[in-house]
Design a protein that fits this description.
Helix content: 10-25%
CATH topology: Thiol Ester Dehydrase, Chain A
Distance between the termini: 20 Å
CATH architecture: Roll
Number of strands: 5
Number of helices: 3
Order of helices and strands: EHHHEEEE
Structural class: alpha+beta
Oligomer: single chain
Shape: elongated
């Protein structure tokens, strides 16, 4: 039984192709606090409700941007990089809107380019990924450069 889908090899991607990824993810307080602590992020706005709301900038503790980025890229991975040999770049990363515990993400992707890779068994695909919250506000976008396996026997 194959471990990956049959339609996400290098040959299956074309410039302009778009994906609305099936799975969504609600950011829990545990997700935010655990990951932020694991990476030693100690910014007060992530852990201190009084500090986060005192300035009037936020309505509560905000999520660490690294958590938002990781979750959106993770939601996009099944359809886009399941057959990856290597991720070779992450560019133009933008966090556009504050994220709070309880926000729900959905991810989308577009193929920006496809090209032969440095090895005969893979090609290079550049994806634009973006995520929206439950209000359809874009919260994050990035471009990811990936070497993806060619279909076996090709």
């Amino acid at each position: 039984m194959p471990l990956t889908s049959s339609d996400n090899y290098f040959e299956d991607f074309a410039v302009g192709q778009t994906f609305e990824h099936v799975r969504g993810k609600t950011l829990t307080e545990m997700d935010q606090v655990l990951i932020s602590h694991l990476v030693m992020n100690s910014a007060q706005a992530h852990f201190n409700e009084v500090h986060a709301t005192k300035s009037g900038t936020w309505t509560g503790r905000i999520a660490f941007g690294g958590v938002t980025i990781s979750m959106i890229l993770g939601l996009a991975s099944q359809d886009t990089i399941e057959n990856a040999v290597a991720v070779t770049g992450l560019d133009k990363v933008r966090l556009m809107k504050s994220v709070y515990h309880g926000d729900t993400f959905m991810a989308f992707s577009e193929v920006l380019s496809v090209a032969d890779g440095p090895r005969p068994d893979c090609g290079e695909v550049v994806f634009k990924h973006w995520g929206v919250n439950q209000n359809d506000d874009i919260v994050m976008s990035a471009e990811r450069r990936v070497l993806i396996k060619r279909r076996p026997g090709q």
